[in-house]
Design goal:
Length: 335
């Protein structure tokens, strides 16, 4: 593309569009039609320039022009309860369901790693000695020790809020840092599995693995599922950088990035539930079987929610991205 010829051919259209947008009076019917036509043309021009002959100065001029025209054509839309309902019943479950081929293997492999670490630590006294002194290990694992009192060491509401905040931050980091080829996500995931494996290994070596599972499972099933979903989505975002498929890399990252941001909001709600369970149910005086049953019920409810609503939304064409009216215009990409 000869950029100078292209600018000369279309500068008048861009100037006319800018003039229409600056009009303070209400546009006539003919002017409104002209505005729509010029907006569509200019959006196409911008896409062509970005893909064929990127020029920072020209892109910097046309990008805000197209954004202003788009606002004038589509109007300003405010969020409503309809958006919240759509997000909870379609957008979020669709995003989780679409990412299942990433987060389910992530969950299975991570659980296997945690179990292997727990077995290794629990069966090797020299590894345990490298973690802490014998007196400290006994204080951690004895009845009424630090592993048991951890969940009741603070007021339930404050503890639940702290847990929710920490887990939500970890999930958000997995989603955001996935763009760096997924490498930070693997590190965050390993740290979580290492902590889980250390706890399981030390309590197992003290003959109290059943107590450990009784403390972890009520909240841990849903909490770890949320972490696995975030990690799997982050890894998929990292793979998009490597292989965007038939879309341009910029378009693919924009679409998957918006879905990941929405995923962070949805997972924050899921982690709020798991944090409430960890703050109020895990340290409660309920029998172990009852506490685990509550955790299993919460986990099954989430999985059924994703399977039923997510599958239905995906069949209807929902990808977890924002609605089409809220996306930037784009031109087709050659296969």
């Amino acid at each position: 593309m000869d950029l100078d010829v292209f600018v000369s051919a279309h500068r008048a259209e861009w100037d006319r569009l800018d003039a229409l947008l600056r009009r303070r009076r209400t546009l006539t019917g003919a002017e409104a039609d002209e505005l729509v036509t010029l907006y569509q043309r200019t959006a196409t021009h911008l896409s062509l320039i970005q893909s064929s002959a990127p020029d920072p100065q020209l892109t910097g001029r046309l990008t805000p022009l197209v954004a202003r025209a788009r606002s004038a054509v589509t109007g300003t839309r405010r969020a409503s309860w309809r958006d919240v309902t759509r997000f909870l019943t379609a957008g979020f479950p669709a995003a989780v369901y679409r990412a299942r081929h990433w987060w389910i293997p992530t969950a299975l492999l991570s659980t296997a790693v945690a179990a292997l670490l727990g077995w290794w630590i629990g069966t090797h006294p020299e590894v345990q000695a490298s973690i802490a002194a014998p007196d400290e290990l006994r204080e951690l694992t004895r009845p009424g020790g630090q592993y048991e009192t951890y969940y009741s060491s603070h007021p339930a509401a404050a503890f639940a809020a702290q847990v929710w905040t920490n887990n939500a931050q970890a999930a958000a980091m997995c989603l955001v840092l996935g763009v760096f080829l997924g490498l930070p996500v693997l590190w965050i995931l390993f740290q979580n599995m290492l902590n889980l494996g250390i706890g399981a290994g030390l309590m197992s070596s003290a003959g109290r693995l059943d107590t450990f599972l009784g403390l972890v499972l009520p909240h841990g099933l849903l909490e770890l599922t949320a972490v696995f979903v975030a990690a799997g989505t982050g890894l998929r975002l990292g793979w998009t950088v490597i292989d965007p498929g038939p879309r341009s890399r910029r378009t693919a990252l924009a679409e998957e990035g918006r879905a990941a941001i929405a995923m962070a909001i949805g997972l924050a709600l899921v982690l709020f539930v798991s944090g409430a369970v960890e703050g109020f149910v895990t340290p409660s005086g309920l029998p172990t079987s009852a506490r685990i049953a509550i955790g299993v019920a919460a986990e099954l409810a989430f999985l059924v929610y994703v399977r039923v609503l997510g599958a239905r939304a995906v069949r209807a064409g929902d990808t977890g991205d924002v609605e089409a009216a809220d996306r930037s215009a784009s031109v087709p990409t050659a296969a």
